[in-house]
Design a protein that fits this description.
The complex is a heterotrimer.
Chain A lengths: L1 H19 L4 E9 L7 H12 L8 E6 L11 E9 L1
Parallel strand pairs in A: 1-2
Antiparallel strand pairs in A: 1-3
Chain B lengths: L2 E10 L5 E8 L2 E9 L3 H8 L7 H5 L7 H15 L6 H32 L4 H7 L1 H22 L8 E2 L2 E2 L5 H5 L2 H19 L11 E6 L10 E4 L4 E2 L4 H4 E5 L6 E5 L5 E2 L2 H8 L5 H9 L12 H21 L16 E9 L2 E9 L5 E7 L1 H18 L6 H13 L13 E6 L1
Parallel strand pairs in B: 2-15, 6-11
Antiparallel strand pairs in B: 2-3, 4-5, 6-7, 7-8, 9-10, 12-13, 13-14
Helix pairs in contact in B: 3-4, 4-5, 4-6, 4-12, 5-6, 6-8, 8-12, 11-12, 13-14
Chain C lengths: L3 E6 L9 H9 L7 E6 L3 H7 L5 E8 L8 E5 L19 H10 L6 E8 L11 H26 L1
Parallel strand pairs in C: 1-2, 1-3, 3-5
Antiparallel strand pairs in C: 4-5
Helix pairs in contact in C: 1-4, 2-3
The chains are: A alpha+beta, B alpha+beta, C alpha/beta.
Chain lengths: 87, 429, 157
């Protein structure tokens, strides 16, 4: 349930950024998964496919990198590094 | 078609640790979902690669209200795997420490969170303006629980004195005697609490799912016991995973516990009381009878009375342990690590807490699993919420939120620690 | 002699939520004589006990009001209620805003109550203070020390 809540927040941000840019589609999403985020890249992709269904980001490529620094203040979270959009 | 990359560097966060989503189609309830933040999952990752001596210290930090429960389930699991059974005086000291936590946690829930619901107040603050004596009684009870935890646990918020094999140091008989007078006063206050809560008005709300609690011959199980259910299960802690499973909920990634093969169950005060009310102290049994409780209680709203009865029992039990206390010969038994899997359970104030650790031969933790009572109770809470929402679809969002919060507070999940926690999202069509 | 208590509130293991406790720890060696420093979680009875018998209390906690991380808020709670939503806390028992009001209702609030709220960035489990909050902690320590000295002069007059 924690993953889902993180995902919901992430999707909200992706859609907001894409909409502000006037994009019609999000083609790639790059994220850094914190060491304590409880996500693996595969796990994240599954969640993303589910959460992006019916949004601008449906079908986007996912680039997910798993961080290993436990002391990073963002270790428990997921950082959305960038998104690639089509106008 | 032009593609561009937008750099965001945005940290995703979890909004609201208690959030509830309701989808309504006219008067029909399509979907009810409760989200509860689940810290143990971080801690499971945290524990991997650490030494087998560390779980009691690390897991105690999961919850500021029930650290002793986490410590106890952790040492139970590890000691069992390593073939160590602590001597009786150590076990009883741990039980005393645990009673302190029950007193603290139940007093907090009954007085600060639950009672205002029954008396028509928004919060304990308003209750304190009209009935300061009652709130002071609750604070005094809580303080006694804190005092027990501080003396035996070494510190109240995150007790530091519990270790694998026993304690770092143990109190003398004389030191424990200092708790007798406050505990006797607390016991009176607890009896008063039972009389007070028994007089509230209770809407009817019967819990019809399976009830699961620890039981132990000749005692009201707290720090040890076998896992039993109202449907007849009788399991050793090691058999937990064979009978209970965490399931992924459709369209969500929530993990919720259920009986294998499907089946909602509830743990906590109602389950403990219904499975073992006969093992309560005579005074607690008497108080329960006067309050109109039978041998079982499946009434969600009356859980406040059951908690009050358990307060009496915890005070009584603390006094009994102190009276019979002989300091152990040494504060801890030596424990050598053993490769394998250890299982530990105990009765946290809000219900069964399960820990499992897999160790290698030098005592490094390879894998840890923690199932807190709140996630075990989540399906039962959602069932109740679905029903409450279905019968009140005409209410506006604020009134519905208040009703849902009250419903949730009956089960005392971790999130009800906050007075007004619920982010309710209602989608109406 | 009047008694002053400084209470840092928070959870060490939850990112910026540790800020109140960090302030308390850094103040401990530096406060004027006679000032007591306590690190505490938000559990109400413990807070009320911590300031029992004090004439003046300074509380430090993290807040979430939507301001930029590291922003410092200050309230004089003896004069007015502190905004509960700003100090809203779901990780511990009852937030300090509620605890202050509970104590006020019971007549157990010290004569002077100052509350500092430090805007948090992340309260995720298992992370340390974020840089913005870390630097605000140092500033806050000085601010509290300044307050305590000023109070002393006022009392001596």
């Amino acid at each position: 349930m924690h993953e889902r809540a993180l995902m919901t927040d992430l999707m909200r941000e992706i859609e907001a950024v894409a909409a502000a840019d006037g994009a019609t589609r999000v083609t790639r999403v790059s994220v850094r998964l914190g060491a304590l985020s409880h996500f693996t890249p595969e796990h994240f992709r599954e969640h993303f496919v589910d959460a992006s269904h019916g949004t601008l980001a449906e079908g986007a490529d996912v680039e997910a990198v798993l961080a290993d620094d436990l002391d990073d203040p963002r270790a428990a979270g997921v950082v959305l590094e960038s998104i690639e959009v089509e106008a | 078609m032009t593609k561009r990359t937008i750099v965001t560097d945005y940290l995703a966060r979890v909004e609201g640790e208690g959030a509830m989503t309701v989808k309504l189609d006219g008067d029909r309830v399509e979907h009810v979902e409760l989200r509860i933040f689940e810290p143990p999952r971080f801690f499971e990752a945290f524990l991997r690669g650490r030494s087998f001596t560390e779980p009691p210290d690390i897991t105690a930090r999961i919850c500021g209200i029930c650290p002793v429960a986490y410590q106890t389930s952790a040492v139970n699991a590890i000691e069992r795997l390593c073939g160590v059974e602590v001597p009786e005086p150590i076990r009883l000291l741990r039980r005393l420490l645990y009673c302190g936590e029950w007193i603290e946690s139940h007093a907090l829930h009954v007085y600060m969170l639950h009672a205002p619901d029954f008396l028509g107040y928004d919060s304990a603050i308003e209750l304190a303006r009209d009935a300061p004596a009652a709130v002071e009684r609750g604070l005094a009870l809580k303080r006694t629980g804190n005092d027990v935890m501080t003396l035996v646990g070494g510190r109240e918020i995150h007790p530091i004195n519990v270790r694998v094999g026993g304690f770092y140091c143990v109190p003398t008989r004389r030191e424990l005697r200092a708790l007798v007078e406050p505990l006797e006063r607390a016991r009176e206050a607890a009896l008063e609490t039972v009389r007070w809560t028994a007089g509230f008005d209770f809407p009817e709300r019967v819990v019809d799912c399976d009830l699961v609690a620890l039981t132990q011959p000749d005692e009201y199980a707290i720090e040890r016991g076998r896992i039993r259910s109202s449907s007849g299960l009788d399991l050793a802690p090691a058999e937990y995973d064979e009978h209970f499973e965490e399931i992924h909920v459709e369209r969500s990634n929530a993990l919720q516990s259920q009986l294998r093969g499907g089946g909602t169950y509830l743990c906590g005060p109602l389950a403990r009381y219904s499975l073992a009310s006969g093992e309560l102290s005579p005074l607690a049994r008497e108080a329960a009878a006067e309050a109109g409780l039978g041998e079982e209680c499946r009434d969600a709203f009356r859980s406040i009375v059951v908690r009050s009865v358990e307060l009496v029992h915890a005070c009584d039990e603390s006094l009994r342990i102190i009276d019979a206390y002989d300091a152990p010969e040494r504060p801890a038994e030596p424990v050598e690590p053993v490769a394998g899997t250890g299982y530990g359970v105990s009765e946290a104030p809000r219900g069964l807490l399960y820990h499992r650790y897999r160790l290698d031969a030098d005592g490094t933790i390879l894998d840890a699993k923690i199932v807190p009572p709140t996630s075990q109770n989540q399906l039962a809470i959602e069932d109740d919420l679905r029903d409450v929402v279905a019968r009140n679809t005409r209410l506006d969002d604020d009134a519905l939120r208040a009703l849902c919060e009250q419903t949730i507070r009956n089960y005392d999940p971790c999130i009800s620690c906050a007075t007004h926690f619920l982010d309710l999202e209602v989608e109406r069509r | 002699m009047t008694k002053t208590v400084v209470i840092g509130v928070g959870n060490r293991l939850r990112g910026d939520d540790a800020a109140g406790v960090a302030v308390a720890e850094r103040l401990r060696e530096r406060v004027p004589e006679g000032v007591e420093v306590v690190a505490c979680d938000e559990e109400p009875s413990r807070l009320i006990e911590a300031w029992e018998g004090a004439d003046s209390v300074v509380l430090v906690d993290t807040v979430s009001s939507g301001a930029p991380p590291g922003t410092l808020h200050r309230f004089d709670a003896d004069e007015e209620a502190v905004p509960a939503r700003t100090f809203r806390s779901s990780t511990h028992a009852i937030g300090i805003a509620d605890t202050i009001e509970l104590a006020r209702a019971l007549g157990r609030l010290p004569r002077r109550v100052r509350v500092y709220g430090l805007e948090a960035e992340s309260v995720a489990v298992g992370s340390g203070l974020t840089p913005a909050v870390e630097s605000a902690v140092g500033f806050l320590v000085d601010a509290v020390l300044h307050d305590l000295k000023e109070e002393r002069c006022t009392n001596a007059r």
